[in-house]
User: Fold this.
Amino acid sequence: MDPRIRTHADILVDHCTDLDPSDDVLVRAPPAAEDLAVAVAERIGEVGANPSISLQSERATRAYLRASDAEDFETPEHLLAMTEAADAFVLIKGDRNTAELSDVPTETLAAFRRARRPVSEARMGKRWVGTQFPASGNAQKAEMSTEEYEAFVYDAIDKDWDAQKDHQQQMVEILDPAEEVRVVSGDTTDLRMSVAGMKAVNDYGEKNLPGGEVFTAPVPDSVEGEVLFDKPLLRHGREIQDAYLRFEGGEVVAHDASKNADLLASILDTDEGARRLGELGIGMNRDIDRFTYNVLFDEKMGDTVHLAVGKAIEETVPEGQPLNESAVHTDMIVDMSDDSFIEVDGEIVQRDGTFRFEDGFEG
Amino acid sequence: MDPRIRTHADILVDHCTDLDPSDDVLVRAPPAAEDLAVAVAERIGEVGANPSISLQSERATRAYLRASDAEDFETPEHLLAMTEAADAFVLIKGDRNTAELSDVPTETLAAFRRARRPVSEARMGKRWVGTQFPASGNAQKAEMSTEEYEAFVYDAIDKDWDAQKDHQQQMVEILDPAEEVRVVSGDTTDLRMSVAGMKAVNDYGEKNLPGGEVFTAPVPDSVEGEVLFDKPLLRHGREIQDAYLRFEGGEVVAHDASKNADLLASILDTDEGARRLGELGIGMNRDIDRFTYNVLFDEKMGDTVHLAVGKAIEETVPEGQPLNESAVHTDMIVDMSDDSFIEVDGEIVQRDGTFRFEDGFEG
Assistant:
């Protein structure tokens, strides 16, 4: 086995989920990532935790969804019971074919997501990590050979996470006490939101591996303005291009896309909360130096801001603050490398992708 | 997809587990059987039941077990919770490599089985079916090409199960009211046991697919004599040959094997009940015409009797009768085609593989 896979597994078990012998852990991976599941299983055995390791077939999910009547989805009680009884989750992605769900009707997918919402919510207060295996389908989508993509993925994961944490802490200290954030890019994006009372979180590779962002929650009703997401969003094998959202009083009042606008609409129509922002994130991982059509990596790029419609991440919303609820959490990315700035309480903290605390910043 | 796979899936969902929209069903299959998992998922979608579909990696299980300390296994509470909350189970086997667990220490396997016993027991009162996908590893073990093995498997599964049920019912009517059964083969096997008060069950492809046997439970303390299992037993990739057991007062008092005797010993040492018989089964599926090193098929061959050490099957043990408990249920097979007979209450009911109710019987 490629030794980088064992390193990846060790980080997942030791750093990200910090497993101990009392933990019941659920490992989910696609068949394409079986090698990583094997390496994680081995490390779990060394640690002494109790695993349930499950390879998830997207081909089976597609077959089930296409054969189903979208009116009929119920929350599977056995999956919910397992999730509630588990202590930690290692959730691995990796596709032989990133378009495997592309011929499932969008309304079926939305209904399926709604029915499974209690299952994903049951995970939320617990230890979990989402990560990526460099499978051939993801390499293809990134327009890279599989070998080159493997190097890209493992370079992003095998970082000095302590140094990364210190670098990002500078942004946490700006964002955490802030009242208002404004994101401007070209003529197409000018968005203001309150983050007053919310908590800015330093992501140094715990719940996401790779990590590399600082994120917080907008106050749900406070978002005003418009945003054009100039990086495409890959969703269930289909690409949403140039997604555009206009907000009034925190709610999406207009939306469009140059490609797959219906898919964007179906996400926004999932429920109430899917039309409001749940996250403002600032990418800070400069080792992720190219866009690969994979939000786990793309949202961490140093020259980007991302916004998620849907569920807010609980640790960013202190008790007593309003928490946006939804069955979805869909991240969309704005390129900030050119003709762009981030303003916090009236002061520019990033211009054209360079932070105030970095060399070359021009305020 | 091979249309025989879809037929197989339909039988599993409609005939074996009889799923309806209220059912939470757990589907487990190895990666090699992903096609069958896909077809089962599709049929579950049509029926409207709620599935959790999980591909199980034996490579991951091996890695976990080899890295674990056998003293440390606990029952995983999340797996138990899922099993308790599920209504039905479709359990598919199929190996790329039947020797995948061959380098896991036998005591580790036994400890693992003990820790997971509550999970398998939680399934027992519910609807479940075990079946086989014709994977390359199983074809190899059967010394058949993959194509020929596929034909063998699907021929055994695509049967007229109503006609098979009627044929087998003749044996049920002999065995169900019986007091004593004697199994004699050559000089090496002469075993007597009481089946008084136990229930003979007609297996026509419900819990096992393929089905094709009539089975009951020996009274645990009643077994006397010796038996040589002349068909090899494949267990975790290792072959136990010429397993020999001698019983006194129902308990194994001597045992041996010409190959992998230690593995046989570890099975018998799992717990108290592993040293007593839990099942007497009579193979009656004449479409299974060759031995393929796979107990699901081998035990159904028309010219065989099988005995299982370990847990009795609950439906064969009426309330008030003694039920043998164990974490294991290991079937072993006696060839009855030559110089052999089965005697029920002093009358010969099968000689040299031919039943009393079949042409060519010589009593």
